[in-house]
What does this fold into?
Amino acid sequence: MSQSVPVLMYHHVSPHPGLVTVSPRTFLTQRRWLADNGFTTLRADDLLDFMEGNREIPEKSVVITFDDGFFDNFVYAFPVLERLGLNAIVFAVTSWIGDGPVRPHAVEAAAGAVPETFNHSDCKKAIREGRSDEVMMRWSEIEAVEHSGAMEIHSHSHAHIRWDQEYGENRFAMLEQDLMESRGTLLRRLGTSPHLCWPWGYYEPDYVNVAKRAGFNTLYTVEKGVNVAGGPLDDIRRVVVKDRADGWLANRLWYYRDSLRGRLYSALRGK
It folds into this structure.
């Protein structure tokens, strides 16, 4: 088997069904399956070192990622990861993160007092209306999950926009400004952030050079595929996770842990 590392992509872990959402029960079932079957969850730098050929990793390795930094990641996903000794990467939109005290998560909350979370549509509405604090993690919560080791935070840009649609010919300059602001914010708050996930999954070839100038080493996409030693660091492939607690996850990992199987499966399934 030619080793490949599957990178799983989540957005919401919430009891409110909707787009890009898995339920807390599904998330727990999937994480227990990983733990019970001997999988190691890699950190962003672990994957980088493997792909650069600088380290060997366990045969059963996987990366867990979350896009955006929604509050439900803290409420429902974080305590599961911490309890099972797993870790994940959160790609946060830095302009959506505010200050304030740490709120309780699902394990800490008293019976019937779990903080309210929202479906994807309501989260987007809250952000548009300037109420992002209701639906996004706070800096205090980000610092708490970073300190625990169960989550690490990297960039999903500062403003989460389509620069081509907003700025046209000026998109490259505005992109660079955005990415530098995001990385600078994470550096000040957390110390480092060399990894970027493209918002909306959209990027142009010239965006890659802009991101590298802004200081990002690895670039995560929404394209399905394999991640192998010697593979391109500016095209980290991911697998969108379904809200299924059956054998779906085991099936996808079987394909994407092997580079040949993963490439054939991706070609057959298409985008």
Remarks:
- The CA atoms of residues 112 and 166 lie 43 Å apart.
